[in-house]
Design goal:
single chain, about 775 residues, alpha/beta, nine-stranded mixed sheet, five-stranded antiparallel sheet
Length: about 775
C-alpha cells in the first residue's frame, strides 16, 4: 500500500511541477506580449527613446522578437541609425529562413536598399523578388525588383514575368503598369507597352499622367496616328490643358515620322510661343531642347542659337549642347560647304611651353587634308619654348600632346584654329605619366576560324588617335600596329543606316527611286536630332533582303546577334543565336547590364556622373562580358556586338572633350574610351590564334549633336596581314568581309575593305574584282565637303 501511496504522491508532484512550469511560461508569454505591446505602442506614439529603452534586452518568443525588432527598427530609422536597424532585420531574416519570414513591406524595402547600397546587388535582387511576390500590392517592392533584377538578368524576361504578375497588384496595378510601360517604351517595344497600359485610363490620379504620357508615346512609336489623336482627345477630357497637349504632340511629331498638317519644326516653334501657359517645367524644358536640336539638325543654326539662349536663360545649361558647341557647328557647316581647302584661310597657332627642356616634343594632330588614321606629328620644342605652326581650319580642333625626353606625357589639350587669325595657347607642364603598354596574348590556334565583330557605336578616329598619342589605348594601339586598318565611309552617318548596310548588304544598290527613298528615310529617322522623315510613307516598297545572320546560320555556322535594335530598324533578334541549319534560340545567361566592380568603378569619377551615364556604363560592362564569355566557349562562329551605350555617352559628354584648353585627358568620355580599350584586351585574351577580331565604329562624332561619316576600322588576329586599306572604303563591304572570312561566298557589294581577306586560308571569294559602292576613292578626309 505504501508503495502505491508513494507512487500517487510522485505523480501528483510531477503534475504540480508541470503546472507550475506551465504557469511560469504562461506568465512569461503574457509578460513578453505586454512588453512587446509596450515597445510598439511607444513606437506608434513617436517616442523613439522610450521605444529603444523598452526593446533593450528583449527575449520573448520568436514571434514577439520579430514584432519588437520591427518596432525597434522604426525607432532606429527615425533616430538616424539605419545601420543598426538593418543589422537587426538581417539577423531576423536569417533566423526565419526556414519559415521564409520577411519583415513588413516598408522595412523589407529598407533592407533591399541597404544591400544594394553595400554593393550586394544579387542579394538585394533576391530579397526584392521574395518581398514583391509576398506583397504584390506594394509598388515600391516591385519597383526595386525590376531595377535590381534587370541589372543581373535579361531585362525582357524580367519584364515578361512582372507583366504576368500585374493582375495580383490590386490597387498598385496602375502605378506598376505605368512603370512597366516606361521600361517597354525605352526598349521601343510599343505594342507590349500598349498591352500593359490597357485601353482605359486609370482612376488613380498618381498614375493618370504617366498613363497618358506613355500611351501617346507608344502610339506615336508604333505609327498609329488615328489612335494617337484619339488618345490626346481623351487626355483633354481628363483635364490636361490645351497648350500642354499641343507641346506634347509637337515633341512626339519631331521624334516619330507621322502625317502632320504642319512641319514638326513649325509645331515646336508654335508651342514655344505659348510656353508661358504650360504649367509643367519639365515639359517646357523638353520643348526647348527638341526645338534646338531639330532646328540645328535642319541647318537652321541661327534660329537654334536664339532658342538655346532662351532656354539657358530659363533653365540653365543643357549639358550636352552648349552655345559654344552650337556656334562651332555653324562654323563647321560653313567649312564643310567650302569646295576645297584652298578657299579656306589658314590659321596661325602659337604654342608656348614655359621652361622648355631639352628633348621636349609636341605631338600635333594631323592636318585637315591628311587621313584621320595618320599618326600625330612630332615637332621638337625650341629652346625658347615658342612654337608657331600654320593650319587649315578643320571640323575638329588641333590636339597636342607634350612629351619629355624620356617619352613621358607631360600635358595635352586642344586649340581651335580660326581662319585668318593667330591663336595662342600656353602648355602647362604636368607630372610625368608613362604611356601604357599591352601585349596581345592570343590563345593557341585550334584550327577553326571564328569572327568577332565589335561595333563601338560613335567611336571617333580623332579621339582615339589623341588618346593613342597620350599612350592610353594600348590594346587598340597594338591591334592597329599588328592588323589591317582603314578609315571607312558611312554615308549617311546614322546607326540605322550602318547596321542595315552591314547586316543586309544585299538590299543596297537598288535602282528604283522609291527604294532609294526608303533607304534614305529609314536612315534619317534613326537619329533623333533630325526633324522628320520625309519619305516614311515609302517604307513598304522595299522587300526584306537576306541578312548576314540568316545566311551564315542557315548552313553549318552559328551566328550570335548582339546588335540591339535601333529606332524603327529591327536587325534580327537581339541576344539570339541563329544556326546551325537555321535554328534560332535565345542566348543563355544573357544579361543586359551588371554592376561595375570596385576596380572598374575606380576608373571613373562616379560622383560627377548622372544616373543615366552610370546605367550606360553598366550596360557596356555586360556587353563586353557577353562577348568575352562567348569567346571562351566554342558555340559561335560569328559574334556581332554593338556597344550601343557608347553612342549616348558620346552625345552626352562630347562637349567635355571638344572645348579649347588643356584637358590632360581628364574627361568622362576619355575614361569610357580607356575602359573600352581595357575590355578589348580581355576579349583578345579569350580568342585563339585562328580567330579574327574586327573592331569598328558605325560613324564618328563631329559635335555633341552631329555625326561624322568617317569610321574607325581594324582587323587583327588569325593570319590578318599588317597594313592599311587605301582610300575610304564604303562601310557596306563589312557584310561581305565577315561572310568570306567564314568561307561563305556571297554576291554582296565589294568596296575594297574585304580584298585583303580573300587570300587568307579558308576564306571564300566571289571570283570578281571589288566594285566600290559609294565614294571611297579619295585618300583624305575632304570628300565630305
Amino acid at each position: 500500500m505504501w508503495r502505491s501511496a508513494v507512487l500517487r504522491l510522485a505523480v501528483l508532484a510531477a503534475l504540480l511541477l508541470a503546472g507550475v512550469v506551465a504557469g511560469i511560461r504562461s506568465f512569461e508569454r503574457v509578460q513578453g506580449y505586454r512588453r512587446a505591446e509596450a515597445v510598439c505602442a511607444a513606437m506608434e506614439e513617436g517616442d523613439w527613446a522610450r521605444t529603444l529603452a523598452l526593446a533593450e534586452g528583449f527575449s520573448g518568443s520568436p514571434v514577439q522578437q520579430r514584432r519588437v525588432g520591427e518596432c525597434r527598427c522604426v525607432a532606429l530609422l527615425e533616430s538616424g541609425d539605419r545601420a543598426a536597424c538593418v543589422a537587426t532585420l538581417e539577423a531576423q531574416i536569417a533566423a526565419g529562413a526556414a519559415e521564409a519570414w520577411l519583415p513588413s513591406p516598408p522595412l523589407a524595402a529598407v533592407v533591399v536598399e541597404a544591400r544594394r547600397d553595400a554593393g550586394d546587388v544579387a542579394g538585394a535582387a533576391q530579397l526584392a523578388h521574395r518581398a514583391a511576390v509576398r506583397y504584390p500590392d506594394v509598388f515600391v517592392l516591385t519597383y526595386l525588383e525590376l531595377d535590381l533584377r534587370t541589372r543581373l538578368e535579361d531585362e525582357g524576361a524580367v519584364l515578361a514575368e512582372l507583366r504576368q504578375r500585374l493582375p495580383q497588384a490590386a490597387e498598385a496595378a496602375p502605378l506598376l503598369a505605368v512603370h512597366l510601360a516606361d521600361r517597354l517604351v525605352q526598349r521601343e517595344e510599343w505594342e507590349p507597352a500598349l498591352e500593359v497600359l490597357g485601353e482605359e485610363a486609370p482612376a488613380d490620379p498618381r498614375a493618370q499622367t504617366g498613363w497618358f504620357r506613355h500611351r501617346t508615346l507608344a502610339l506615336a512609336g508604333s505609327g498609329r496616328a488615328d489612335a494617337l489623336a484619339e488618345a490626346f482627345g481623351q487626355w483633354a477630357q481628363a483635364g490636361e490643358p490645351a497648350p500642354a497637349l499641343r507641346a506634347r504632340y509637337a515633341v512626339l511629331a519631331s521624334i516619330f515620322p507621322m502625317p502632320t498638317r504642319r512641319p514638326p519644326v513649325e509645331l515646336l516653334l508654335a508651342s514655344l510661343a505659348e510656353a508661358d501657359a504650360i504649367d509643367d517645367p519639365a515639359l517646357v524644358a523638353t520643348l526647348y531642347t527638341r526645338t534646338v536640336r531639330v532646328l540645328a539638325g535642319s541647318g537652321r543654326q541661327e534660329e537654334a542659337l536664339a532658342v538655346l539662349r532662351q532656354r539657358t536663360a530659363r533653365f540653365g545649361e543643357m549639358g550636352a549642347l552648349t552655345e559654344e558647341e552650337l556656334l562651332r557647328s555653324v562654323e563647321q557647316r560653313e567649312l564643310l560647304a567650302a569646295p576645297n581647302a584652298v578657299t579656306v584661310q589658314r590659321a596661325a597657332l602659337r604654342l608656348r611651353v614655359p621652361a622648355a627642356r631639352g628633348g621636349d616634343v609636341l605631338l600635333l594632330s594631323p592636318a585637315a587634308a591628311e587621313p584621320l588614321d595618320s599618326p600625330f606629328q612630332p615637332v621638337p620644342v625650341p629652346a625658347d619654348g615658342e612654337l608657331r605652326v600654320e593650319r587649315e581650319p578643320d571640323v575638329a580642333p588641333l590636339r597636342w600632346v607634350l612629351r619629355d625626353g624620356d617619352g613621358a606625357v607631360r600635358g595635352s589639350g586642344a586649340v581651335w584654329p580660326a581662319p585668318g587669325q593667330e591663336v595662342a595657347a600656353t602648355v602647362q607642364r604636368r607630372p610625368p605619366r608613362r604611356p601604357a603598354a599591352a601585349e596581345l596574348a592570343w590563345r593557341p590556334a585550334d584550327g577553326r576560324r571564328r569572327v568577332f565583330l565589335v561595333i563601338l557605336d560613335s567611336a571617333d578616329w580623332r579621339l582615339a588617335q589623341y588618346l593613342r598619342a597620350r599612350g592610353e589605348l594600348p590594346v587598340l594601339d597594338r591591334l592597329l600596329e599588328a592588323g589591317t586598318r582603314a578609315v571607312l565611309d558611312s554615308d549617311p552617318p546614322y546607326t540605322a543606316a550602318a547596321l542595315d548596310a552591314i547586316v543586309r548588304p544585299g538590299a543596297r544598290g537598288v535602282s528604283s527611286l522609291a527604294a532609294v527613298a526608303y533607304q534614305l528615310g529609314s536612315e534619317i529617322e534613326a537619329l533623333s536630332f533630325v526633324a522628320d522623315n520625309p519619305v516614311a510613307a515609302l517604307r513598304w516598297v522595299l522587300p526584306e533582303a537576306e541578312d548576314l545572320f540568316s545566311v551564315l546560320g542557315g548552313g553549318p555556322h552559328t551566328a550570335v546577334n548582339l546588335l540591339r535594335s535601333f529606332g524603327t530598324l529591327r536587325i534580327g533578334r537581339h541576344a539570339h543565336r541563329v544556326g546551325p541549319r537555321g535554328i534560332e534560340r535565345p542566348l543563355r545567361g544573357y544579361r543586359a547590364a551588371r554592376e561595375l566592380s570596385a576596380e572598374e568603378r575606380g576608373l571613373f569619377q562616379l560622383g560627377s556622373l548622372p544616373p543615366n551615364s552610370l546605367a550606360l556604363l553598366r550596360e557596356m560592362a555586360a556587353d563586353f562580358d557577353t562577348a568575352t564569355t562567348l569567346a571562351r566557349g566554342e558555340g559561335a562562329d560569328l559574334v556581332a556586338l554593338r556597344v550601343a551605350s557608347l553612342d549616348i555617352l558620346t552625345h552626352s559628354h562630347f562637349a567635355g572633350v571638344s572645348a579649347a584648353g588643356q584637358d590632360d585627358g581628364d574627361a568622362t568620355l576619355f575614361d569610357v574610351y580607356r575602359y573600352a580599350d581595357r575590355r578589348l584586351g580581355e576579349l583578345v585574351a579569350a580568342l585563339d590564334g585562328d580567330d579574327v577580331l574586327l573592331v569598328m565604329s558605325d560613324h564618328g562624332a563631329r559635335t555633341a549633336m552631329e555625326h561624322d561619316r568617317s569610321c574607325l576600322f581594324v582587323a587583327a588576329g588569325g593570319e590578318v596581314p599588317p597594313g592599311r586599306v587605301a582610300g575610304r572604303p564604303a562601310l557596306v563591304g563589312i557584310g561581305r568581309l565577315v561572310a568570306e572570312l567564314l568561307g561563305v561566298a556571297v554576291d554582296w557589294p565589294a568596296t575594297g575593305i574585304e580584298a585583303w581577306a580573300e587570300g587568307l586560308p579558308g576564306a571564300a571569294t566571289s571570283g570578281r574584282p571589288p566594285a566600290p559602292s559609294g565614294p571611297s576613292a579619295a585618300p583624305g578626309r575632304r570628300p565630305s565637303r
